[in-house]
């Protein structure tokens, strides 16, 4: 089932309205709604799965930062009137989830992180030295996954178009630099919500040791490593990912 994108009050989002509990999904820097297709299919009829589209390319540049995106999520949750949420974030979305949980612990039922930034990340670097080089962007996009075939032409084209749009490229770099400045190493012990970590063993962006350190520093956390998997387990191994997520959500609901 496909869900339409709603535009309301300055927000763009998908909302499945499939259950009473809110499962809020936050995408990464190059994220798209397609990243969460398998989660929407599995949980859309049993949870109210919500995917706000982060305004990385629309919000005023002076506000563009990880903190600005946290404020955006907070305003969205407030606007929708969600009292409690299960947060799930990939890459930059995981970083935003953690900062939101630190700022609004009373709103959090659980946190799921996969390939999250916040401790260490090795992405495209701080500049795009080969803008216009399709093969370079294709290789970088393929490197996100263990199996390069997951990087479809549609996905590569989307990344290529982003980095070749000067305004978008500047915004990507600014957001990435902001994420690096907002290192959470000394704050993670304050996270009290049950936390699920699902990590690709072959993640080149946030390597396996990053997931292990999150596990060490977040007191109420559990870690699952996924074999033959890169930076986006929910795309590369959706069945394994969804099984871990379903078991976790049932556990925290007890």
Which CATH architecture would you pick?
A: 3-Layer(aba) Sandwich
Shape: globular
For the record, the CATH class is Alpha Beta
Strand order of the largest sheet: 1-2-4-3-5-6-7-8
Secondary structure: helix percent? 25-40%
Helix count?
Answer: 9
Largest sheet: 8 strands, mixed
Q: Radius of gyration over alpha carbons?
A: 17 Å
CATH superfamily: Alpha/Beta hydrolase fold, catalytic domain
Task: Give the SSE order as H and E letters.
Answer: EEEHEHEHEHHHEHEHH
Reported by name, the CATH topology is Rossmann fold
Structural class: alpha/beta
> Roughly how many Å apart are the termini?
29 Å
**Number of structural units classed as domains:** 1
Percent strand: 15-25%
Question: Mean of the pLDDT scores?
Answer: 92
Beta strand count: 8
Unreliable stretches (pLDDT < 50, length at least 5) are: none
What does this structure look like?
The protein is of the alpha/beta class and 254 residues long. It has one domain (6-122, 183-253): Alpha/Beta hydrolase fold, catalytic domain (Rossmann fold), CATH 3.40.50.1820. 39% of the residues lie in helices and 17% in strands. It contains nine helices and eight strands. It has helices at residues 37-43, 66-80, 92-103, 134-142, 153-163, 166-181, 208-217, 233-236, 238-253, and strands spanning 6-8, 11-15, 22-26, 48-52, 85-90, 108-114, 195-200, 221-226. An eight-stranded mixed β-sheet has the order 1-2-4-3-5-6-7-8, sandwiched between helices. α1 crosses α9. The longest helix is centred in the last third of the chain and has 16 residues, at 166-181. The radius of gyration is 17 Å and the shape is globular. The model has no long low-confidence stretch (mean pLDDT 92).
């Amino acid at each position: 089932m496909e869900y339409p994108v709603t535009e309301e009050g300055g927000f763009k989002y998908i909302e499945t309205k499939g259950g009473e509990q809110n499962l809020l999904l936050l995408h990464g820097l190059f994220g798209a709604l397609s990243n969460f297709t398998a989660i929407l299919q599995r949980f859309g009829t049993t949870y109210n799965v919500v995917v706000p589209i982060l305004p990385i390319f629309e919000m005023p540049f002076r506000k563009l930062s990880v903190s600005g995106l946290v404020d955006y999520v907070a305003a969205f949750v407030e606007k929708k009137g969600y009292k409690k949420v299960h947060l799930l974030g990939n890459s930059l979305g995981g970083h935003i989830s953690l900062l939101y949980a630190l700022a609004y612990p009373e709103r959090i039922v659980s946190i799921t992180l996969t390939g999250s930034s916040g401790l260490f990340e090795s992405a495209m670097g701080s500049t795009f030295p080969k803008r216009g080089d399709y093969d370079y962007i294709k290789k970088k996009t393929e490197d996100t996954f263990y199996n390069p075939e997951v990087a479809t032409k549609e996905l590569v084209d989307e990344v290529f178009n982003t980095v070749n749009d000067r305004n978008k490229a500047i915004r990507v770099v600014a957001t990435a630099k902001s994420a690096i400045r907002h290192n959470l190493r000394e704050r993670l012990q304050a996270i009290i919500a049950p936390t699920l970590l699902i990590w690709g063993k072959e993640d080149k962006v946030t390597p396996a040791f990053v997931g292990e350190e999150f596990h060490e520093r977040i007191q109420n956390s559990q870690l699952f490593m996924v074999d033959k998997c890169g930076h986006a387990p929910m795309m590369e191994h959706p069945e394994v990912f969804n099984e871990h997520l379903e078991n976790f959500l049932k556990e925290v609901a007890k």
